[in-house]
Amino acid sequence: MKIEVFSDDESTARAAAKFIAGEARAAVAARGQFVMAVSGGRTPWIMLRALAKEEVPWEHIHVAQVDERVAPAGHPDRNLTHLRENLLEHSPIRPDQIHAMRVESPDLEGAAKLYAAALADIAGSPPTLDLVHLGLGPDGHTASLVPGDPVLNVTDGDVAVTGVYQGRRRMTLTYPIINRARRILWLVTGNEKAGMLLRLSHGDPSIPAGRIRQDKAVIFADRAAAGDLAA
């Protein structure tokens, strides 16, 4: 696993945007499209705003969600709300190229299956994403794969629905589809992440993030999160 360390969260986010743009250009040249899945969070929104300014073959890009909170459309808790604000409104990407998890559905399990089918339509069966962007929680979670939740054990589906975590249920990509991705980009900032980032770098399987494959992964972190890794 490659680790790159930057001075602060904004420089980390901008570097991640440049990395994604390069991966997108290479994927489109090789396979005709680039399918990425993005996570939520303040630093990722900076990353997406920066990505909107990069040289990207937007007409060949598909953007999926790594996870989403079960909340009404347009709610500030929704990752989709910020995805639209920071990417859709600042880049030439079309609304139909952003694939939203339908967490407003009264049948969440059914909606998860439909989302998995939608990913298969754009990324093959089983779907192979070109890039999955992940964050890291202070408790070691990534996506909405949180400690103790049954979704950690899902092996027969690419999308699942969690129990309540921090006040809301979530829909999330599962280990199988994340670990099939051609590239995994971790974006980790803040000193509260330092302990878990060290465990992630060692592949600690006792934390949810540690079960993500490392051979195709790169970590972009700021100095605060990198801690001893920056030494």
Can you walk me through this structure?
This protein has 231 residues and is α/β, with parallel strands linked by helices. It is built from seven helices and ten strands. The protein has helices spanning 9-31, 42-51, 79-88, 108-123, 175-180, 194-201, 223-226; strands at residues 2-6, 34-38, 61-65, 67-69, 98-99, 131-134, 159-161, 170-173, 184-188, 217-222. Strands 1-10-9-6-2-3-5 form a seven-stranded parallel β-sheet, sandwiched between helices. Strand 2, helix 2 (42-51) and strand 3 form a beta-alpha-beta unit. It starts with a strand and ends in a 5-residue tail after the last helix.
Provide a short characterization of the protein structure.
With 231 residues, the protein is an alpha/beta fold. The chain contains seven helices and ten strands.
